[in-house]
Write a structure and sequence with these properties.
single chain, 2 domains, cytoplasm, eight-stranded mixed sheet, 10 strands, alpha/beta, Rossmann fold
Length: 343
């Protein structure tokens, strides 16, 4: 069974910043069937511009014939707070009869996203989750949730993510936001505001998602005679336009700011202390060519989460490898579950 649904939080949501959202709707997607023992639940936390339909954007890992096949698993994925795929965000009214807030949408943090996930989990009556999995921004949510609710998750799988967003990552996000703010239409408070800025922001982001070798392999010119109209230039333009067609600048700003806020150690005595709260059997996966979340950040997680296992994928795809290298991820998951079973 594959379905898309919406859950309305029963009470206003108080955000970590002190702001309050009077109403919150969360769009979520389920695939597969919950078994009688209720022990086949996989909860996916998605990354920056993804949606709740994980079967559509993580093929090879999720879907018929994948490691997480809906024939065997009950898969849940919720669209994150601040996004534009059905959950409350900058383009949706936050109260009956109100106008969307656009650039005035309040600061949402990773902990706010997790607060919504937790209310949805309770609404669905899911007492225990077999595996919580996420990469990048999704991994930040999964990590925060596992710290907050250590008794809920049996297994935790973290890909290309961190305990605290780095100065390097924040700088990349700020460069993208500056590109959006340089587009005067962003301040027009209309659904199409900031589209040119968003296209430029996505071009900046791609430099952190891929690697030198990935561009050299896919965007090199067949000869050395060209003076302009390079393949790499066209690729940046195309990828920017592709995102503009399916996303909006206001959600992009809101979610990039949420990523910047990520720090599991905030108010908990530091990162190392916070990570010791996790009780799930944990697999942390790094990517050799990832410049946005370099392997050292995943190695730190594995050192300080009790009993965690670390694995590194050799990949030329950079950060995007967590979405592309599904064969490697599947192999690592198979080993992880076998080792967890005999532990």
């Amino acid at each position: 069974m594959n379905s898309s649904q919406v859950f309305a939080l029963p009470t206003p949501l108080s955000l970590e910043s002190g702001a309050v959202l009077p109403t919150v709707r969360v769009a979520y997607h389920t695939a597969g069937t919950l078994n009688a023992a209720r022990d086949n639940i996989i909860w996916v936390c998605h990354a920056l511009t993804a949606n709740a339909d994980v079967l559509s954007w993580w093929p090879g890992l999720f879907g018929p014939g994948g490691h997480f096949d809906p024939a065997d698993w009950f898969i849940v994925c919720a669209n994150i707070l601040g996004s534009c795929y059905g959950s409350t965000g900058p383009l949706t009214p936050v109260a009956a009869g109100a106008e969307p807030l656009y650039q005035e949408f309040p600061l949402v943090t990773i902990r706010d996203m997790v607060a919504v996930h937790e209310q949805l989990r309770q609404q669905l009556g899911l007492a225990k989750i077999h595996t919580l999995i996420g990469g990048s921004l999704g991994g930040q949510q999964a990590l925060e949730w596992a710290v907050q609710q250590p008794a809920v998750f049996d297994h935790l799988v973290l890909l290309a993510t961190s305990a605290q967003h780095s100065p390097w990552g924040i700088a990349f996000n700020e460069a993208q936001r500056l590109a959006i703010f340089a587009d005067p239409t962003y301040f027009s408070a209309t659904p199409d505001g900031g589209k040119a800025g968003l296209q430029a922001a996505r071009a900046v982001a791609l430099l952190s998602y891929r690697s030198y070798d990935a561009y050299a392999g896919s965007q090199a010119e067949p000869d050395g005679e060209r003076l302009t109209d390079f393949r790499a230039s066209s690729y940046q333009q195309y990828q920017g336009a592709k995102l503009v067609a399916r996303f909006d600048a206001y959600s992009y700003v809101a979610l990039s700011r949420a990523m910047d806020s990520h720090n599991v150690g905030r108010g908990r005595g530091g990162v190392e202390t916070a990570l010791r709260h996790i009780r799930a059997r944990t697999l942390v996966i790094g990517i050799s060519s990832d410049v946005l979340f370099p392997p050292a950040e995943q190695q730190l997680l594995a050192r300080h989460i009790g009993g965690a296992r670390y694995a590194e994928m050799a990949s030329g795809f950079g950060h995007d490898g967590f979405l592309i290298e599904t064969a490697q991820i599947t192999h690592l998951l198979e080993r992880f579950y076998v080792q967890s079973f005999v532990r």
